[in-house]
Amino acid sequence: MIKVGDKLPSGALKEFIDVEGNGCSLGPNAFDIEKECAGKSIALFALPGAFTPTCSAKHVPGYIEQASALKAAGIDEIWCVSVNDAFVMGAWGREQKAAGHVRMMADGSAEFTRATGLTLDLTAHGMGLRSQRYSMLVVDGVVKTLNIEAPGKFEVSDADTMLKQAQASR
């Protein structure tokens, strides 16, 4: 399992791009994790699934609400990672009004999630292999803080905890 001091796994995450430009085409675009993290401080949070109750009502909205404060604390980008495809993540981002605040990053085949060791088997609930709920502060591709939730909990991966950690790391 990934831990503080480790580099993020190599590979790509996909993001649905609504407006063509800056070298990105309309629709799903793959982004190299190492290149996207280079020289940046990223608040990355992951969750079991798009449009699920806690994720939609608390997790994503909290990061959207705290986006300005996180950026003032030195965070360059906020990423939401879920084992969903880029189309679903794009639709969820539009529904959550995440544009300009949170990048909705798709890990459709759970490659990133498996590489971190933070998988959650929800097969019994008809959801297959998913991500555990967690957050991490990543600086230049290296994990500086890691907050993994206990099963069924939402206590340590929230935006307020990340904001305190970002402020303390300055």
TrEMBL record:
Record's catalysed reaction(s): a hydroperoxide + 2 glutathione = an alcohol + glutathione disulfide + H2O
Enzyme class, UniProt record, top EC level: oxidoreductase
List the signal peptide residues.
none
Domain Thioredoxin: start-end pairs: 2-168
Question: InterPro entries per the record?
Answer: PRX5-like, Redoxin, Thioredoxin-like_sf, Thioredoxin_domain
Record carries keyword Protease: no
Q: Which UniProt keywords apply?
A: Antioxidant, Oxidoreductase, Peroxidase, Redox-active center
Q: What does the record give as EC number?
A: 1.11.1.27
| Family that this chain belongs to | Belongs to the peroxiredoxin family. Prx5 subfamily.
Q: What does this protein do?
A: Thiol-specific peroxidase that catalyzes the reduction of hydrogen peroxide and organic hydroperoxides to water and alcohols, respectively. Plays a role in cell protection against oxidative stress by detoxifying peroxides.
**Name assigned to this protein:** Glutathione-dependent peroxiredoxin
